[in-house]
Amino acid sequence: WQEILMNKLPTLQQGATDKAGQVFFVHRLQALLACYGQINHIVAAACQPVTGTFDAPTTVAVKAVQASKKLTADGICGPATWGVLIAGSAT
Known about the structure:
Elements: H1 2-8, H2 25-40, H3 43-46, H4 56-68, H5 79-87
Helix pairs in contact: 1-5, 2-4
């Protein structure tokens, strides 16, 4: 079920923004990054502001989380990164 859920979430990267009337996926990503960073002592993620815009600080936070789990640190939040943030595992 986890893989199915993660594959249904959007792939987000720098430049993505939340829009009124749609699910605020960037907000959710940023909140998860901050929470994950605080729990796992990843400063770049723990300091993530929730703005709704996938900007340079969000890219840095995503890369830090990816590197901590030995994923390719490309700064793009796809199924493996969502899996880490939501379930603690890339698969």
